[in-house]
Amino acid sequence: MLLSREVLAGIVTTLALIPEVISFSVIAGVDPKVSLVASIVLALSMSVLGGRPAMVTAAAGSVALVVAPLVKDQGVEYLLPAVILAGIVQIAFGLLGFARLARFIPRSVMLGFVNALGILIFVAQVPHLIDVPWLVYPLFALTVVIILVLPRFTKAVPAPLVAIVVVTAIVMLAHLTVPNVGDEGAIGGALPGITPFLVPLNLSTLAIVWPTALSVAFVGLLETLLTAKLVDDITDTRSHKNRESWALGVANILAGFYGGIAGCAMIGQTIVNVKMARARTRISTFVAGLVLLAMVTLLSDVMAQIPMVALAAVMMIVAITTVDWHSVRPSTLRRMPLPESLVMAVTIAVVVATGNLAIGVLVGVVLAMVLFARRVAHVISVTRVVAGSGPDAVARYAVHGPLFFGSSNDLVERFSYADDPPAVVIDFSDSQIWDASSVAALDSVVTKYRQHGIEASVEGLDGRSSVFHRRLSGHLS
To answer: Which helix (H) or strand (E) holds 87?
Structure first.
């Protein structure tokens, strides 16, 4: 049962993969077979090496957008060194453990990422339903009905696979003329050999390719790590993000040498695999690579006959199920803090406007950081109590809240230097010191008191803050 489920999931994932990979090759300015062969290499190698089982990796749209200017301006021969350099960066990223940084992506950005993904997937299918023969529409309706109704009777076979097979059979047996996969680009023929290195291996080549290589590396890493996190949530399992990062680098280098273009996690197809087809193991993605290989080499004529409307209907339902509808309900938005909703909305808007998930996520993270810094800048408070009178009077200041570069900037302004008695105590029992900026601010406070002839003492620091303060105090200016 498990094996059959995984195999069938791999088949339906392949069918959902083919048209997108072909269309992305057009964006990148490379031959469709280049992207298809690279996708085979990526899918097979990541099934073995990757740290997130059941996640689909192939030649992706985000990478295509990044490499397109290089191919257009310099020629396709510069693509291989760019892909190799990008792979090396990704390997280093994973081996150095930098994938842990993904945990700092806020939930609001993740929701924006998921919702924008649903919008992009849906919008990308709309052209397949515009200016097409009228027969497309009943075939679309039939596909949707099969996908929605079949799971009520059986889940032994993925409903999307049944829908695609049934609609393709109807079109072929009735000799109907509707747009199909073959119209998207040539996909058959023998496999290419090793990609030749056609540019000189020197600093001039490096100067040309390194900006594109870094963009490919980090766009691919960002989409892959976010997709892995999404799959973790769907399957209630944990992935190995660092392993996924260096494995992606290795897979991209292999795909560069045998195929010619890089890739990353395919989010829509991953949703098809883990959510609609219920795949959970590496078998599904390995089968997807093998089926794609068979489709390209042996079954290209059959693959070319698959109606685009069937694949579009599958992906539209994927898009609808991808959106986190709870996050955009009015009742949810009323309860959420305004900054959180703003970050989600901006992430969605930027992704939809640019068509690039990575750019949207980066903008969302930066905005979240800015809004967070603005909030925590006012997180501390200082209370003043004067005990005694005359020469024996003591002013005690109690600091509340963590001190760091964002919150300690206005600490100096919280004290009454000219009005305080000869003795001042600054109590940190309810506060901590986290960075050098805080120590510098506290030194400024003590210095100002000395200028007024007042001796200020600090007490109540916890062990870590006390050690940190002793090490830096008096050495920062």
So the answer is: helix 79-95
Instruction: Classify strands 57-58 and 264-265 as parallel, antiparallel or unpaired.
Output: antiparallel
Contact (Cβ atoms closer than 8 angstroms) between residue 29 and residue 184: no
Query: Which tokens go with 39?
Result: 């996708």
Nearest partner of 290 among 79, 125, 48, judged by Cα: 48
Share of the chain above pLDDT 90, in %: 49
> Half-sphere exposure of 15 toward its Cβ, with a 13 Å CA cutoff?
30
Is 80 exceeded by the pLDDT of residue 62?
Answer: no
- Structure tokens given for 354: 């640019």
CA distance linking residue 362 with residue 226, whole number of Å = 12
- DSSP code of 190? P
Tokens of 189: 């023929």
The structure tokens listed for 188 are: 């058959």
In the chain, % helix, strand, coil (3-state, to 5) comes to 65, 5, 25
| Distance separating alpha carbons of residues 158 and 155, to the nearest angstrom | 6
Is 272:318 a contact under the CB 8 Å cutoff? Answer: yes
Write down the H helix ranges in 336-399. 338-354, 357-376
pLDDT digits (tens, 9 = 90+) for 334-347: 988 899 999 999 99
Do the beta carbons of residue 307 and residue 15 sit within 8 Å? no
DSSP string, 191-242: PP-PPP--S--SHHHHHHHHHHHHHHHHHHHHHHHHHHHHHHHHHT----HH
- Helix ranges (H only) for 393-462 are 436-451
Q: Which helix (H) or strand (E) holds 40?
A: helix 32-49
**Residue 421 and residue 81: Cα distance in Å, rounded?**
70
Give the C-alpha separation, 202 to 224, whole Å.
31
Q: 0.70 exceeded by the pTM? A: yes
Number of CB atoms found within 10 A of residue 451's CB: 9
pLDDT tens digit sequence for 207-235: 999 999 998 998 899 889 989 998 999 99
Question: Are 285 and 273 contacting, i.e. CB atoms less than 8 angstroms apart?
Answer: yes
CB 36 within 8 A of CB 195: no
Q: What is the pLDDT of residues 237-265, one digit of tens each?
A: 999 999 999 999 999 999 999 988 999 99
User: For residue 61, which of 105, 112, 15, 121 has the smallest C-alpha distance?
Assistant: 121
- The contacts of residue 63 (CB under 8 Å, 6+ apart) are 24, 28, 216, 219, 220, 261, 262, 263, 264
> 299 or 246: whose pLDDT is higher?
246
